[in-house]
Specification:
Mean pLDDT of chain B: 81
Shape of chain A: globular
Order of helices and strands of chain A: HHHHH
Number of strands of chain A: 0
Order of helices and strands of chain B: HHEEEEEEEEEEH
Oligomer: heterodimer
Strand content of chain B: 15-25%
Largest sheet of chain B: 5 strands, antiparallel
Helix content of chain B: 10-25%
Structural class of chain B: alpha+beta
CATH class of the largest domain in chain B: Mainly Beta
Number of helices of chain A: 5
Strand content of chain A: under 5%
Shape of chain B: elongated
Distance between the termini of chain A: 18 Å
Mean pLDDT of chain A: 86
Distance between the termini of chain B: 19 Å
Low-confidence stretches of chain A: none
CATH architecture of the largest domain in chain B: Sandwich
Number of domains of chain B: 2
CATH topology of the largest domain in chain B: Immunoglobulin-like
Strand order of the largest sheet of chain B: 8-6-3-4-9
């Protein structure tokens, strides 16, 4: 697997997992684990599946980030108690923004 | 959750002030994996468009001497096989280059392989025709890259769109939280 991809995945996980865990006091371990799994799945999909599916000219970046935002929020909503859609959206948006910003700066 | 609002603004700020390429989220490069073993070079295509050997042929260029040949022999992994290659460094790239893949970390014309073994007597694999002379021009110069991540200006446009998307989601989430609290309070 491409080394640059692994670095990108590492940056993503190291930034998103703590953010999500921080936003769910009392459920940090469960939500942190859910974040790690969901983020890895969306990251893999975005890099290795989506580019081959999208029509030419479509930004895989924007489409992938939108997919990640929705999918990860759905996971946090499902895994957390109580099920709070607002908190799930905030967690997903904050975590994704932070990892995206980290990528801009670090890579 | 309202306490997260200042944090949210701080985290979203890089999208406004840093218009650089979002390499953390680019897909793997569209390129070639060229491996030299003895006098045999195997070139596998790495792309999202399912292009594979024989395609329209692979070119092998000797940058030192200028000789260019076309290859079309494939192995069981749909990789090009170039046998009985003399010592030297060569460039391998598709006759019809990859189209620029904007979501990839980079799209490349060719990859280089170095054969370090002197060519002695060499027998080709049965069924392999070997290289044929190519009289046209290679589609590349000295730069191997067709394009990087995101064409001119589009990288920062996409980054702005991503931050905007997350900002909208954040706002929606905070609004939902606020409404939830209003409903719960007497």
């Amino acid at each position: 697997m491409n080394a640059l991809y692994l670095v990108a995945l590492g940056i993503t996980l190291c930034t998103e997992v703590p953010v999500v865990a921080l936003l769910y006091p009392g459920q940090r371990l469960r939500l942190g684990a859910a974040c790690a799994v969901a983020t890895t799945a969306t990251h893999l999909t975005m890099h290795f599946v989506l580019p081959g599916l999208l029509p030419a000219g479509t930004s895989a970046l924007v489409a992938g980030e939108a997919l990640a935002l929705v999918a990860e929020a759905a996971v946090y909503l499902a895994v957390s108690h109580p099920h709070d859609p607002g908190r799930a959206l905030v967690a997903s948006a904050l975590a994704n923004s932070l990892s995206f910003g980290a990528g801009l700066v670090l890579l | 959750m309202v306490r997260t609002t200042p944090l949210a603004v701080l985290l979203l700020l890089p999208g406004v002030v840093v218009p650089s390429r979002a390499l953390a989220n680019c897909a793997e490069p569209v390129t070639y994996q060229a491996t030299a073993t003895g006098n045999t070079v195997t070139v596998c295509l790495r792309n999202f468009g399912a292009r594979q050997c024989p395609d329209e042929g692979l070119l092998r260029q000797n940058p030192a001497g200028g000789e260019v040949v076309t290859l079309a022999d494939c192995d069981s992994n749909a990789c090009f096989v170039d046998e009985c290659v003399p010592e030297g460094t060569y460039r391998y790239g598709l006759k019809t280059p990859y189209a620029c893949s904007r979501s990839s970390c980079g799209t490349y014309y060719f990859a280089e392989a170095t054969v370090s073994t002197p060519l002695g007597s060499c027998t080709r694999t049965s069924g392999f025709s070997g290289p044929t002379a190519f009289t046209g021009s290679v589609p590349w110069g000295n730069n191997s890259q067709i394009c990087g991540y995101g064409p001119c200006g589009c990288g920062s446009t996409n980054a702005g769109a991503v931050f905007a998307l997350n900002a909208v989601a954040l706002g929606a989430g905070l609004l939902l939280r606020a409404r939830g609290r209003k409903r719960r309070s007497p």
